[in-house]
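#lab-general

N.A. 3:47 PM
ok so I finally got the sequence cleaned up, no stray characters, all 325 residues accounted for. can someone with queue access submit it? mine expired

B.Y. 3:52 PM
send it over

N.A. 3:53 PM
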Amino acid sequence: MMNYDVVTLGETMLRLSAPGMCRISQATQFDVLVGGSESNTAVGLSRLGLKVAWLSRLTNNPMGHMIVEGISAHGVDTSHVVWTENDRVGTYYWERGTKPRGSRVIYDRKGSAISRMQAAELPTELFSPGKSRLFHTTGITVGISQTAAETAIVAATLARNAGWLVSFDLNYRSKLWDPAEARLGCEPLMRVANLIFMPQRDAISIWGCAELVPEKQLKELAQIFPNATIILTMGAQGAAVRGSAGEYAHECAFELEEVERLGGGDAFSAGFLYGYLATQDLAIALRWGNATAALKYTIPSEFPLIVRHEVEQLVQGHIHSTVKR
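B.Y. 4:20 PM
back already:
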């Protein structure tokens, strides 16, 4: 029997949030949460009913165990995490703002345990035919360090060789690298991927797409990655997808009142991957992605603490889609 539906790899940090609308400089206490792109997606997939594992490397101290306990509490298997007595757990600070003062993130992650993860530390016995259906990672992992990037590429290659699908979310972070560095660093993994998630703004700034129309943008990207299904996220304009055979679908976003944006893209990835693995239908997968993200935006946490039947209700009631084949 298959061990997992999805295996993810990436860094998860402790998030220290200034309470309410306080600036970091005026805070006398912080709310401590757990968050990281791949683990956010893993939690969403698990809460939608899939079997999921999260791979990483953490320092064997109370902070590292807090992260693992926070993730495993949602049904994600963390038994493959590599523990070390060295290095440190990454952290970041979050200051929420409203117009005209924007929200702010300050990273404190240099030298984190996963930034020094080696490919030799991967559980290679896991990457075997039938052990999982899909492997997922992001450009954040690739951008942390050269060793983390090499580890992610090896993991993706092992997954493809085992007959798994490979999913990659570009997830560009300007605090990690510039667009040229991100393109150079992410391209090898994107050429291995079957599924590529990319915000529309990154298609323009990193891949130089001249077109602004989603369908035309996706055609440009398909020339670079002809064997991948490419998913373009567009914020309030919803999301679009082009399959490897050229099929196109677009889904409008749901109306929502935003409570917290952090983790919304990861929730979208979780919903899309769930819908795709369940149906292989690109339009339906987009609906699941949009619905999962919409509900996540109403929750003050990076984790998409969604309830499956609530997502399903949104999916079933959403009819604003266009599909071309």
